[in-house]
Amino acid sequence: MTALRGVVTAHPLAARASVLVGLIGRGIQLSRTPVMHEREAARLGLTCAYILIDFDALQLPDAALPGILSAGAALGFQGFNVTHPFKQQIMPRLDALSPEAAAIGAVNTVVYEAGRTTGHNTDCWGFAESFRAGLPDVPLRQVVQFGAGGAGAAVAYALMQLGAGQLDIIDTDPARAQALAAHMEKDWGDRVRATDKVADVLGWTDGIANTTPVGMAKYPGMAFPAEHLRPHHWVAEIIYFPEETEMLRVARGLGCRTLAGTGMAIGQAVRAFELFTGRKSDMAAMAGHFAAAA
């Protein structure tokens, strides 16, 4: 309670906010989500205070997560966004899950209502909307995804919903890739599989999605050897700071079609804002807020 109360008190809008929400994660000081929510609220005549609950900056252990959820309720929060590394850890701590969050197995938005917490997933919709806009006509016969964490689960479901014929999932923890593939088997059968054969699957894939943190300033580089990229590949990223990751830079240099992580960041915020406030959000306005925060 003390840690959360301190960051709330320090926020200049908190005392008069009609909407009090935040982001739970680690290493999130560069997030543009606060600006998107606060400016969209102002556009609609609301006052929003969006609080960063950065477990690194606050020097909190993972075990503090249940206490932060309880403190949020006591302090009058409407909800929280959730990011790395808590999108799956938080699920057992919640009272209920939306059907989509339960199916995906990851939560990125928590809403308080009548004293109960409900977990939602807006990442899946955000990625799918970004993909439709940015890569509308790319082949999806076979796709390779790097990463099987909370964001990876959402992107994997989005790719299958978009029409991927075969999805190969690769993770530095093979057991985690296997677990995600097994979780998706009930919906997609053997069209989703885990593998560790990077060179083999990249040799004949149509496209590549990176859902790992590799490419962020804190984790520079690429999730796979650059030598495996080919000009016919399309490449999708979910990282948005930096907006041009090493993978996107190399891919663009080869002439690959690329999708930056900005679209997913904006799309998930649109849906989360609506869950927090009950007010319809505008995608173009959110994109403007995102750009203004650069």
Radius of gyration: 19 Å
Helix percent band: 25-40%
Give the biggest beta sheet. Answer: 6 strands, mixed
Q: Can you give the mean pLDDT?
A: 96
What class would the helix/strand composition place it in? alpha/beta
Shape: globular
The protein's oligomeric status is single chain
Topology pattern, helix = H, strand = E: HEHEHEEHEEHEHEHEHEEHEHH
Question: Overview of this structure, please?
Answer:
By secondary structure, the protein is α/β, with parallel strands linked by helices. The protein contains eleven helices and twelve strands. Strands 2-1-3-5-6-4 form a six-stranded mixed beta sheet, sandwiched between helices. Strands 9-8-7-10-11-12 form a six-stranded parallel beta sheet, sandwiched between helices. The longest helix has 16 residues, at 262-277. It is globular, with a radius of gyration of 19 Å. It starts with a helix and ends with a helix.
